[in-house]
Amino acid sequence: xxxxxxxxxxxxxxxxxxxxxxxxxxxxxxxxxxxxxxxxxxxxxxxxxxxxxxxxxxxxxxxxxxxxxxxxxxxxxxxxxxxxxxxxxxxxxxxxxxxxxxxxxxxxxxxxxxxxxxxxxxxxxxxxxxxxxxxxxxxxxxxxxxxxxxxxxxxxxxxxxxxxxxxxxxxxxxxxxxxxxxxxxxxxxxxxxxxxxxxxxxxxxxxxxxxxxxxxxxxxxxxxxxxxxxxxxxxxxxxxxxxxxxxxxxxxxxxxxxxxxxxxxxxxxxxxx
Length: 273
Description:
Strand content: 15-25%
Radius of gyration: 35 Å
CATH architecture of the largest domain: Orthogonal Bundle
Number of domains: 3
Helix content: 40-55%
CATH class of the largest domain: Mainly Alpha
Shape: rod-shaped
Structural class: alpha+beta
CATH topology of the largest domain: Helix Hairpins
Number of helices: 6
Number of strands: 11
């Protein structure tokens, strides 16, 4: 019984010694970590305000702000560990091994991250522009560090991993697109008058941009019709609607003015004896 009481007394005394030795250091370390968190948050907000005046994509500003917070907290964490007397070299070596393992396990995620940073800094396209890449096309709706989201004309969304974009051939239409319509008229039609009618239709349509100027010209003398190219510029969001309106207006105007758009036809002759 006396031996047990003696052991308990020794444990209490040892615990008291450890508390007296490391207690103040632990309290100081906690204060340092709390201060690091607060300073890091303030640094992140300050950097975010400064970056808001620069021509950077929102994900880039967010990444830089968060990086500033993490680095500030990491610096205070190192100070806290040194205050506790922790050897940093073995800790750094252990973290390096863990980091290498995580890098191998998340290779695909990291490749998307690196590709996303490349896209955000090089800016081959921006939100709102119409692009075509990896057999997909659409208006850029969102760019993140890991993926890019395109919106199709039918309002469906396509999410493309960033590693599939970097290194591929990219066709960037920008914020406007050029329609490619073709109208056929008979050979006895006044082509100049038909071109004038199409020009009036394009000038009257509010979806058609006048700068750059629409292209209206004869492009082919076909077997059964004179083909006229109608290529106006419109905003990306008006691409489908403008094509339908222009085709409808051309058809109605040609009918009112007696301009004939011929159907494909062939003349067959039978030769007898």
